[in-house]
Design a protein that fits this description.
By secondary structure, the protein is mainly beta. The chain has one domain: TolB, C-terminal domain (Neuraminidase), CATH 2.120.10. It has two helices and 24 strands. A four-stranded antiparallel beta sheet has the order 1-24-23-22.
């Protein structure tokens, strides 16, 4: 043990090193607000928080859950209540990357809600029933078979309005310049079990980094994914859509400090609707209109940028409607201290100020 003046010098050196290693965000000139404080900070996960999803209880909103992945070779899927307490978990999982909620999957004559998780090091899609996190996948559904280098990372669920068919989009660590994103039909295989059948490969990939963040606007029938360092790409979510596999828009091609990361979509128009993208290295979130004006749906106007207290956010999510403690809606963002931060959508809208319509 060091004591006396030597101990003081050692402590001072450690403090200096700590301050010197502190990261600072890159500038985002559109984000002029002081960092918003979260209303709730979750309990930390053991290793590396990465991506959240929100499940709203159909009968009692107070029992809704925030789901989050712990991205590690011995990681897991965690369920938090609205106070940020861990209430359930599935662990270990082999580097679970992203999570999404898919409602209304037909199983055993009933419609069930599920959590979709990519298990990257196992090359599998995991499907867990909500809210009890019981597995429905027989140990995992293989994806990206025949190409182990792709390693599943991003995931998003989609329920087609016209017939209730359910689909899953999966993106990987790498892939081809065209046909990067894979879409699977999720349906019952045997009583109580599910299967994933590949229905198409589509979507451009720059090859600069990777694609993991993705989200679906089911009401408008669009899927978005972040081509890190390039922009957010937009396609038709329905494999039978008349647009086919054509790219419909590229959002945020300028103004991002580094990686385009988490995407959150709040349906609606005006101030109610939004498409939010994490500007990861700036520690900010850029907010776009959910659709363009009549006749120009690809023209997503940039409303502005807002700074939160989260750092280096990979994943984020927003609720479709109010929840207890969050009357205008709940926005959840991962932070690099192994936690998930809960914000009020009303606070984000207010911080946007004049940039918001």
């Amino acid at each position: 043990m060091i004591s006396g003046p030597g101990r003081f010098r050692c402590s001072l050196l450690l403090l200096t090193l700590s301050v010197g290693c502190t990261r600072s965000p890159a500038p985002d000139p559109l984000a002029t607000n002081l960092p918003l404080a979260p209303r709730v900070v979750s309990e930390p996960v053991p290793h590396d928080a990465d991506d959240p999803a929100i499940w709203i209880h159909p009968e009692d909103p107070a029992r809704s859950l925030v789901l989050g992945t712990d991205k590690d070779s011995a990681g897991g899927l965690y369920a938090f209540d609205l106070a940020g307490r861990i209430v359930a978990r599935v662990a270990p999982l082999a580097r679970p990357n992203n999570v999404d909620v898919l409602r209304g999957v037909r199983l055993g004559g009933n419609a069930v809600d599920v959590a979709l998780v990519t298990e990257r090091e196992a090359g599998r899609l995991r499907v867990f029933r909500l809210p009890d996190l019981a597995p429905l996948d027989g140990g995992g559904l293989p994806v990206m078979e025949g190409d182990p280098a792709r390693a599943p990372m991003g995931v998003a669920g989609y329920r087609r309005a016209r017939d209730g068919a359910t689909f899953v989009f999966v993106g990987g660590k790498g892939g081809p310049s065209d046909g990067y994103l894979l879409q699977y039909r999720l349906e019952e295989a045997v009583p109580g079990g599910l299967r994933a059948t590949r229905v198409r490969a589509f979507g451009a990939y720059s090859g600069r980094k990777e694609i993991e963040a993705m989200a679906v606007d089911a009401e408008r029938g669009w899927v978005y994914y972040s081509d890190e360092g390039v922009g957010v790409r937009k396609y038709a979510a329905d494999p039978a859509a008349p647009e086919g596999n054509a790219e419909l828009a590229l959002l945020g091609a300028t103004g991002f400090a580094g990686d385009h990361e988490g995407i959150a979509i709040r349906p609606g128009d005006g101030t109610e609707g939004a498409l939010i993208v994490s500007n990861q290295q700036a520690w900010t979130f850029r907010v776009f209109a959910p659709a363009g004006p009549p006749g120009r749906p690809p023209d997503h106007r940039l409303r502005g940028s807002v700074r939160l207290s989260t750092r280096e956010t990979d994943g984020c999510e927003i609720s479709r409607g109010p929840l207890p403690g969050f009357p205008g809606g709940l926005f959840v963002a991962m932070s690099d201290d192994r936690t998930f931060h809960y914000y009020a959508w009303d606070d984000l809208r207010a911080a946007l100020g004049r940039e918001s319509p």
